[in-house]
Every structure is written in C-alpha cells, then in structure tokens.
Amino acid sequence: MPKSQKYRGTETKMKQQLVLGAVFLMAAVQSTTAISCYTCNTTDSTTPFQCSEWFERFDKPDLKPVDCSNVYGAKFCIKHIGRFEDGIGAKRYCSSRDLGNYCNYVRNPGDQIEYRSCIFTCDTDGCNGASRQSTLSTLAIVLLAVAGLWITFQRQH
C-alpha cells in the first residue's frame, strides 16, 4: 500500500476520533453543570406580568434563566400553567424530577368552573420559557449543522 493512501486512512480515522471525542466531551461537560431555568410565578406581587404564559411572544422580559444548583439533582425545567396558589397564571421552576407533559381540567372545592392546568417538562437551559416548538427547531438546526460538517469532512478525504 502506498504511503499516501496509508496516511489518508490514518488521517480520516483521526478526524473521526476527534469528532467523537468532542461530542463525548460536550456531553460530559453538559452533564456536570447544573441546568439553568426560568424561575418565576405570576402570583408574585412585585413582578406579576413578567411570568405570563406567553411572556416571550409579546415582549422581552427582564427575566433570565438562573442556575439551578440550589435545587438538589436539578435536571429539568418545569412550566406550570393553570390555577395554583389562589391564582391563575404560570409558574416556572427547577426540578429534580421529570413531571412529564400533560394537561388536565381541575375543579377545586368551591369553584364554579373547571380550570385547564398544564405541566411542561424539559431538560435544556432556559427551555421553560419558549414553546417546545422553538426548542425542537433549535435542535434541528444543530443536527443539520453537525451533518453538514460530517459531509464536508467526508468529501475532503
């Protein structure tokens, strides 16, 4: 086998190992750092409108995702919409548990009507502010970029 072919094969393997190593390194760093989530409550009297259900659609909120290292084992961000704590609105917080994604109709004792209450759970930084659709769009863009880089590496060698 000519040296140039042997060298190209080794170079390609090294590039593949480098890409795989970078992916594993990013996964390791992601798993060791705490997740950041929006944390707010519409029943908070100091900033009641900063935590509405659609706060990113109508304005740019002052809220920023906060580090969840104060919640033991926090791996998830939760967005709860509905009736809670004597109010109707939204609540966003960090959680160590995956509460799932679902909606229910709730009628508390003494209520005349049923209220729709929804829980949305996600596991990426700041994901409990935007809709799930925009999170999926971001993921699709990242995957397309990685695929594009992979194809570029393959065509060069």
Distance between the termini: 17 Å
The rounded Rg comes to 22 Å
- Helical region count? 3
CATH class: Mainly Beta
Topology, pairings included?
Layout: H1 3-32, E1 36-37, E2 40-41, H2 55-58, E3 66-67, E4 76-84, E5 87-95, E6 102-106, E7 115-122, H3 132-156
Antiparallel strand pairs: 1-3, 2-5, 4-5, 4-7, 6-7
Description:
The chain has a 5-stranded antiparallel β-sheet, with no helix packed on it. It has a two-stranded antiparallel sheet with strand order 1-3. Mean pLDDT is 75; it is low at 27-31. The protein has a single domain (33-143), classed as CD59, CATH 2.10.60. It has 3 helices and 7 strands; from the N terminus they run H-E-E-H-E-E-E-E-E-H. The protein is of the alpha+beta class and 157 residues long. The chain is elongated. The two termini are 17 Å apart. It is a lipid-anchor; GPI-anchor.
Entry summary:
The protein has 157 residues and is of the alpha+beta class.
Write a concise keyword list for the protein shown above.
38% helix, alpha+beta, 157 residues, five-stranded antiparallel sheet, CD59, 3 helices, two-stranded antiparallel sheet, 24% strand
